Amino acid sequence: MGWRWLTAGESHGPGLVGIVEGVPAGVPLTRADIDADLARRQQGYGRGGRQAIERDHVEIFGGVRHGRTLGSPVALLVRNRDYENWAESMSPDPGTPDRQVTRPRPGHADLVGGIKYGHRDLRNVLERASARETTMRVALGAVARAFLKALGIHVAGHVVRIGDVAVPDRDWQLEDFARVDESPVRVIDRTAEARMMARIDEAKAAGDTLGGQFEVWVFGLPVGLGSYVQWDRRLEARMAAAMLSIPAMKAVEMGTGFRQAEQRGSAVHDAIYWDAERGFYRRTNRAGGLEGGITTGMPLVVRVAMKPLSTLGQPLASVNIETKEPYEAQYERSDVTAVPSAVVVGEAMALHVVAEAVLEKFGGDSLDEVRERVETWRKTVRAY
Ligand code: EPS
User: Fold this and answer.
1) Which residue of 11, 68, 325, 334 has the smallest Cβ count within 10 Å?
2) Within the chain, which residues score under 50 in pLDDT?
3) Atom 12 (ligand 1): residue with closest C-alpha?
4) Interatomic CA distance for residues 121 and 326, integer angstroms
């Protein structure tokens, strides 16, 4: 069954809950590990008023004892501090709903979600469609991070574009990511930082929003995760699907992705070398660590494009679902950009995909068992 997980909870409800099942026993895991990633998700220049309210902390309801996983499902809870302002409106008990939403915001799930589920109060849609849900993806992702770290696999991300300001491509090393969190826009290459922040200020002043791109890198992967033998085993496809499941993500590239379409094959593919110490290796990694849907042992590199957030200070035209009259929505608090936070959500999704792929290949009920199998396999690969 591998690694399976689910989240539940609304943006202004009591909180978010999550369960991950398949975590081997014996993985060192503390609340502080999970809270560290939750805090990282909340940082970032361009976030709005809600982030001043929330200080996300996890509560562990199952699966961990004295700092180690038990092999049983890991159950997590993160409360919404804002719930105290919404307790009446979001109560699960029978009552009359207030703070109803009847004016769908273009670009949100509001209108199609209302039609689909038959809701006349679009709050019933936006509460779950909200990216607040990614909090629990990150909390559960921190469990995967602890597991993979124990196997020498590390996942890190950074922003490579905000609006029209981009960071040049480089072959990054794991050490390069060590100080990313110090940057308010989560860039490794800080030459772009001031210009990115200026763009965010300009968009804010204009009542507008900004998208961008981020990359997630996975270091320390063994050769051979994923497979070409069936469409749904290709790790490229699974990674892309995971990234596009994050709200507001519109495009994914593996390695140099779209840019490969403009070049000849000789400039795109990664030549193969061998020496006695390393075995097979590459000097370039344009493939982004995957060939035939299988990990090559080079870093896995996935780049994701995020659209500008759809809650606009200067709203686009829309129609009231009850009166059918056109309206201009009043402006409520929102973020100008959430690309720096999306990096951390992208890391979480990559962590889930890799944890699942590792368990698929190696299996194992305890961390020791998985670790031994991975080490044996790494030796087998070197000897090939
Ligand atoms: C969000 C809108 C804002 C964000 C929220 C996601 O919330 P609110 O409508 O309460 O102001 O702050 O993000 C979070 C709460 C979070 O923790 O990331 C949306 O519509 O998706």
Assistant:
1) 325
2) none
3) 50
4) 17
The rounded Å distance from CA 142 to ligand 1 centre is 21
Q: What is the pLDDT of residue 352?
A: 98
Q: What CA–CA distance (Å, rounded) separates 300 from 351?
A: 12
Q: How far is the CA of 113 from the centre of ligand 1 (A)?
A: 18
Nearest residue (CA) to ligand 1, atom 13: 132
Nearest CA to ligand 1 atom 2: 334
Tokens of 101: 């939403």
- pLDDT in the model for residue 1: 67
Cβ atoms within 10 Å, residue 98 = 9
Across the chain, how many H-helices and E-strands are there? 11, 17
- The answer to whether residues 280 and 384 touch, using CB atoms and an 8 Å cutoff, is yes
Domain carrying residue 106: 4-382
First to last CA, the chain: 29
Q: Which of 335, 337, 343 to mutate to test the pocket of ligand 1 (most atoms within 8 A of CB)?
A: 335
CA of 133 to the centre of ligand 1 (A): 9
Tell the residue nearest (CA) to atom 10 of ligand 1: 50
Q: What is the pLDDT of residue 76?
A: 98
Of the candidates 47, 103, 15, 79, the residue with the CA atom closest to the CA atom of residue 344: 47
Which domain CATH number covers 189? 3.60.150.10
List own/partner pairs for 115-119 with CB under 8 A and 24 or more apart: none
State the pTM of this model: 0.97
- For residue 264, with 0-12 CB atoms within 10 Å meaning exposed, 13-18 middle and 19 or more buried, which class applies? exposed
Q: For the chain, how big is the Rg over CA atoms in Å?
A: 22
Residue with tokens 């081997």: 24
- For the packed helices 31-42 and 339-362, what is the interaxial angle rounded to 10 degrees? 140
Nearest Cα neighbor of 249 from 211, 198, 219, 296 is 211
For helices 134-149 and 339-362, give the axis angle rounded to 10 degrees. Answer: 50
